[in-house]
From TrEMBL:
Lineage, highest ranks first: Eukaryota, Viridiplantae, Streptophyta, Embryophyta, Tracheophyta
EC number(s) stated in the UniProt entry for this protein: 2.7.11.1
Catalytic EC class: transferase
Official protein name in the record: Putative non-specific serine/threonine protein kinase
Topology term for the membrane: Single-pass type I membrane protein
Entry's transmembrane regions: 160-182
Entry's Gene Ontology molecular function annotations: protein serine/threonine kinase activity
Entry GO terms, CC: membrane
Lineage: superkingdom: Eukaryota
Cross-referenced PANTHER family: LRR RECEPTOR-LIKE KINASE, LRR RECEPTOR-LIKE SERINE_THREONINE-PROTEIN KINASE FLS2
Keywords from the UniProt entry: Glycoprotein, Kinase, Leucine-rich repeat, Membrane, Receptor, Repeat, Serine/threonine-protein kinase, Signal, Transferase, Transmembrane, Transmembrane helix
Length: 219
């Protein structure tokens, strides 16, 4: 459901060369935030503060990986703060205060570094940086997410390791074989070298065998 606009709400778009941002604050807009917001991946700033938005905070906001400021304070949002928000590595300003959010605050460097005032006014919200601790089941959910995230990183690392080995083998193989295929002189020289090496090894082996026999016969 798209947001309904009441009174004369002004939608202010601020797009500059360096900091593209959308600020729709201090209005009486209600409804849900459209999931299409996640397609605006060039956004660096997003503010919906002091409106009447409701329902859950859409996880699609986590697709805005360049986001530096996100203000969703003083609305009627419910549910949890999406754990996918931990992917917003450039987030320097974050505020979800005075909503109806609940559950544990996602564990990530950015979220724990924000002041507790960014989360206040949500009576059922818990975990650092808020002073109230979460129940055991919420901690387990966060631990499960962290474990899954670690396992995904480990699988990606193994995948890249195998890929690098295969690419290295292919490149090394063609660096040796390609000149032999394309240049006739190199091919003749290579096989001539192999024949000489074979003869040399044959002589050494024969010499060792007969040397041992002569040693035994002398004893």
């Amino acid at each position: 459901m798209c947001p309904k606009l009441y009174k004369s709400a002004v939608v202010e778009y601020k797009f500059s060369y360096f900091v593209p941002a959308i600020f729709i604050g201090n209005n009486t807009i209600s409804g849900n935030i459209p999931i299409e917001i996640g397609q605006l991946q060039l956004l660096h700033g997003l503010s919906f503060r002091k409106n009447n938005f409701s329902s859950n905070i859409p996880e699609h906001i986590s697709n805005l990986e360049n986001l530096e400021a996100l203000d969703l304070s003083r609305n009627q949002f419910t549910g949890n703060i999406p754990s996918s928000f931990t992917k917003l590595n450039f987030l320097a300003v974050f505020n979800v205060s005075y909503n109806n959010l609940e559950g544990s605050i996602p564990r990530g460097t950015q979220h724990q570094s924000f002041n507790a005032s960014a989360f206040e006014g949500n009576l059922k919200l818990c975990g650092p940086p808020l002073p109230n601790e979460c129940p055991a089941n919420d901690d387990n959910d966060n631990a499960g997410y962290s474990q899954d995230h670690t396992e995904d990183e480990h699988e990606n690392l193994i995948s890249w390791f195998h890929t690098s080995i295969i690419l290295g083998f292919i490149v090394g193989f063609w660096e040796v074989c390609c000149p032999l295929v394309l240049k006739k002189k190199w091919r003749y020289g290579y096989f001539k070298f192999l024949n000489r090496a074979q003869d040399f090894l044959y002589v050494i082996i024969i010499d060792c065998v007969y040397g041992k026999r002569r040693l035994r016969s002398s004893i």
